[in-house]
């Protein structure tokens, strides 16, 4: 990141926030765990992806829980950090909700949808970020 906190030297837009991209990824992962998300994974996409730095991939037991996980992340990031996603998709069906927070993209799956798309298998060569550190 450049000297101006929250803005990158890259051309994609960033949102001014008090969290660095790794801290934001950990914060989102921790919020998901608080809502009992399963199989929480944080994938470090820097170096392989130019539109985001991290993917947070989690599983909810059913569409109701995936929606609750997404809603909690949305509420807390807005309330505590003034951060809103650039876009959200899939919230109506709630089998795969994607929330794009610029530096971090949150993927909330139902078990069947996560098994079908196997996002971690697609990106199995990227480093994983420890969730607990600094969360």
TrEMBL record:
<dbReference type="InterPro" id="IPR004394">
    <property type="entry name" value="Iojap/RsfS/C7orf30"/>
</dbReference>
<comment type="similarity">
    <text>Belongs to the Iojap/RsfS family.</text>
</comment>
<keyword id="KW-0678">Repressor</keyword>
<comment type="subunit">
    <text>Interacts with ribosomal protein uL14 (rplN).</text>
</comment>
<dbReference type="GO" id="GO:0005737">
    <property type="term" value="C:cytoplasm"/>
</dbReference>
<comment type="function">
    <text>Functions as a ribosomal silencing factor. Interacts with ribosomal protein uL14 (rplN), blocking formation of intersubunit bridge B8. Prevents association of the 30S and 50S ribosomal subunits and the formation of functional ribosomes, thus repressing translation.</text>
</comment>
<protein>
    <recommendedName>
        <fullName>Ribosomal silencing factor RsfS</fullName>
    </recommendedName>
</protein>
<dbReference type="GO" id="GO:0090071">
    <property type="term" value="P:negative regulation of ribosome biogenesis"/>
</dbReference>
<keyword id="KW-0963">Cytoplasm</keyword>
<keyword id="KW-0810">Translation regulation</keyword>
<dbReference type="Pfam" id="PF02410">
    <property type="entry name" value="RsfS"/>
</dbReference>
<dbReference type="GO" id="GO:0043023">
    <property type="term" value="F:ribosomal large subunit binding"/>
</dbReference>
<dbReference type="GO" id="GO:0042256">
    <property type="term" value="P:cytosolic ribosome assembly"/>
</dbReference>
<dbReference type="InterPro" id="IPR043519">
    <property type="entry name" value="NT_sf"/>
</dbReference>
<dbReference type="GO" id="GO:0017148">
    <property type="term" value="P:negative regulation of translation"/>
</dbReference>
């Amino acid at each position: 990141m450049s000297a101006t906190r929250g803005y990158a030297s890259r051309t994609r837009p960033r949102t001014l926030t008090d969290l660095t991209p790794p801290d934001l990824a950990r914060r989102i992962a921790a919020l998901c765990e608080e809502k009992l998300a399963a199989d929480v994974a944080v994938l470090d996409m820097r170096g392989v992806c130019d539109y985001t730095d991290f993917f947070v991939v989690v599983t909810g037991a059913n569409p109701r829980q995936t929606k609750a996980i997404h809603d909690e992340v949305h509420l807390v990031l807005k309330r505590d950090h003034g951060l809103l996603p650039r876009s959200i998709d899939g919230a109506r069906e709630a089998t795969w909700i994607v929330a794009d927070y610029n530096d971090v993209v949150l993927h909330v799956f139902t078990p069947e949808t996560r098994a079908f798309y196997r996002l971690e298998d697609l990106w199995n060569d990227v480093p994983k970020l420890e969730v607990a550190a600094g969360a």
